[in-house]
Amino acid sequence: MKRTSGEAPHAVSHRPRKRFGQHFLVDRSVVDRIVAAVAPQAGFADLDRIKARWPSITRFRLHLHDQRGLALTSIYAAITTLGPEDELEIDSTVGGIGGCPFAPRATGNIATDDLVYLLHGEGIETGIDLGGLISVAEWLEGILGRQLEGQVYRAGAFAPVAA
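Predicted structure:
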């Protein structure tokens, strides 16, 4: 899987929003807009349908809240669904902070530290220093005065994955 950079052409500009199961496709972005966090196999059957309908789309972006603790599982499902020719961009926030103004009690996006830990564990290079990221999450916890949603910043990185 390649890392994305720069501006991507609008592959679905004629149809800016299209519902696929529980998700919406917005210019190659799969968005869990109501923070439903459905089961990963249902959600990423949507990716297969998108790829079948628009085979020229090879750049995808996920915007998933971790409302019910399924965001990492959904991201893993997306990684295993997409092929080596595809690019995947994932929205995340340090420590999982955030929310959604349209969904009461919504949590933030997946914690960047949890995401990077998963990707490094799967052998996917990110160019992100996990130890530095954990330090930022610890600092942010102090600034906000509350425990953050992320798991890895609290547990610490496991040496084989930390690199």
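Summary: The radius of gyration is 16 Å.
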